[in-house]
Automatic annotation (TrEMBL):
This is Binding-protein-dependent transport systems inner membrane component. GO terms for cellular component: plasma membrane. Its main location: membrane. It is a multi-pass membrane protein. Keywords: Cell membrane, Membrane, Transmembrane, Transmembrane helix, Transport. The chain crosses the membrane at residues 81-104, 116-138, 144-163, 184-203, 209-229, 241-261. Belongs to the binding-protein-dependent transport system permease family. InterPro entries: MetI-like (IPR000515), MetI-like_sf (IPR035906). GO terms for biological process: transmembrane transport. It is found in: Cell membrane. Residues 77-258 form the ABC transmembrane type-1 domain. Pfam families: BPD_transp_1 (PF00528).
Amino acid sequence: MNAPDRFRDNQPGARERKEMKRITAPFSKYISIAVFLLVWETVSRLKLVNPLFIPPVTKVLGKTWEMLMDGVLLKHMEISIFRAFLGFLIAMVIGIPLGFLLGGWFKRLQLALGPLLEFFSQTNPFILFHLIMLFLGIGEATKVSIIAWVCIWPIIFSTISGIQNTNPYLLKAARGFGLNRLSLFYKIVLPSAGPAIFVGLRLSAGYSFFMLIAAEMMGSSSGLGWLILNSQENYDILRIFASATVIALLGLGVDLLMGLAEKKIIRVGFEEFLNSEY
């Protein structure tokens, strides 16, 4: 610590301010959300907008709690979470190995298939939904398939990017230590590509809920998407907002879990790499 830093720390109240800043730092990013909710509540309570169409936040939370207590919301949540998770899992199991193959071992194939993959990734999933429905019918397979389709592309492209951006000098140095291809993959390529892969996984996790709600609205009799559609047909505005709130919280929770998993896995993997013996 240099002299100016020591001087600032010794000023009256400097340590208290520093400690307060450390405590409040994790919550600072949620200030905008709190302000938004406060404005929403105020605008609705003052009837600056019609509260029949935009009810106060407190009423929405009350309706959400009521639906949780009577079991309706939990039943549809379980169904939706299972569909989203299964579609995401299928995309991950297929997308990561395929990305490694195209980005590492079959680069020429990746160059040849690149335009086709880009074309498929840009295909409107809502059009595909009806095509898949023709083959698989209106059932769980259709909904899970379209979720997997939407989720797989960020995973494939981020994995390819992570592999191709591996430091070539690091690979040469590792080969100089006598690492075989398998050791090279686990000790160099995988840790290097890890951050990029997790970017794709986090994007796909978000896409899974987005596509889930759309799929449940278009062909389902259960799930949070169907619950919103059913509430709309019955003009139950509070239930629409309550269901949408739960969906938003689920998406936020999944993103937070993915972020924690990323930090844990990447850190542990990097530490193992540093401590490994060639």
